[in-house]
Design brief:
290 residues, alpha/beta, two-stranded antiparallel ribbon, 14 strands, globular
């Protein structure tokens, strides 16, 4: 079996972010910051750490701030230089010419449709998918951990995380086969099963390495859960045709599509930092002690 190298990553960033209104009325939800860095930057850095060479954003209307973030900011940089200020905070954000690549999703038809919008750029190569709402904190990053597993087994490798049985109806869930350490054979996938019917408590936390054949399935994929074109349904059709594994993350996940999860991420990341951690920890302890 020839395992093609993973060079491309797709970031579905066309969502409206309605759960964070009014903050997202004029600002992309992916630009919400955890401490001082936008969510999208955390995800892009995770992909680059894993050796990804081409960043593909599937975007939509009113996402100009996201595109500008990864571009040159001449006025800002020139002013900072003139004032003798360090550019270290922004020096690694700008991408090389030709990356990121931007493609539009004109209608909000679901994650599967968003991924399919990148089909011409992905071509006949394997590709990663990263959902920026899911902030993964670990050493090394989740995608790098997954790439190491992919290079060993090939095929399709998706993220896996254990959740409480009461939470399984919120996510795509894995039916597990043989288990080898943190690698679990995937025998089936189900999107948001009714509570009490889930085949396991292994959910898919927004990280995927997929073979290009999934694009041909998405071409004719019908709507599923939530009346949207679900990536999970298309992936399920690859099971049995190609190797398919879940890889359990060794690290911490924060669901930043949820307000409570977003606040938790800010607090946890802040406390872990050397510069502001002690002060934030003392403040949090003071709140809890009242």
């Amino acid at each position: 079996m020839t395992i093609k190298p993973l060079r491309k990553a797709v970031f579905p960033v066309a969502g409206l972010g309605t759960r964070f209104l009014p903050a997202t009325k004029a600002m992309p939800k992916e630009m919400l910051t955890v401490v001082d860095k936008p969510l999208i930057q955390y995800a892009v850095e995770e992909a680059l750490e894993a050796g990804i060479e081409q960043i593909i954003f599937v975007t939509g209307r009113n996402k100009g701030a996201l595109e500008d973030h990864f571009d040159i900011s001449y006025e800002l940089e020139d002013t900072m230089r003139a004032r003798g200020k360090s550019l270290d905070a922004i020096s690694n954000i700008r991408m090389k010419p030709g990356s990121p690549v931007y493609v539009r999703q004109q209608e909000p038809l679901g994650l599967g449709h968003a991924v399919w919008c990148a089909r011409e750029i992905v071509g006949d190569e394997p590709f990663a998918v990263l959902l920026p709402d899911e902030l993964m904190v670990g050493q090394p990053g989740f995608m790098k951990q997954m790439v190491e597993a992919y290079n060993a087994v090939g095929g399709n490798v998706i993220g896996a995380l254990e959740v409480a049985d009461s939470e399984t109806d919120k996510y795509g869930i894995i039916s597990p086969g043989a288990i080898d350490g943190r690698l679990t054979e995937v025998t089936a996938l189900v999107e948001k099963p009714k509570r009490g019917t889930a085949p396991s408590n292994l959910m898919i936390p927004g990280r995927y390495i997929l073979q290009p054949e999934v694009m041909r399935i998405l071409e004719t994929q019908e709507k599923g859960a939530g009346d949207e074109i679900q990536l999970t349904d298309a992936m399920a059709q690859l099971i049995g045709q190609q190797p398919f594994h879940g890889f359990t993350f060794d690290g911490q996940r924060y669901d930043c599509g949820d307000k409570a999860g977003y606040i938790q991420a800010n607090l946890a990341i802040a406390i872990a930092r050397d510069d502001i951690g002690p002060g934030v920890r003392a403040f949090a302890e003071g709140l809890l002690g009242r």
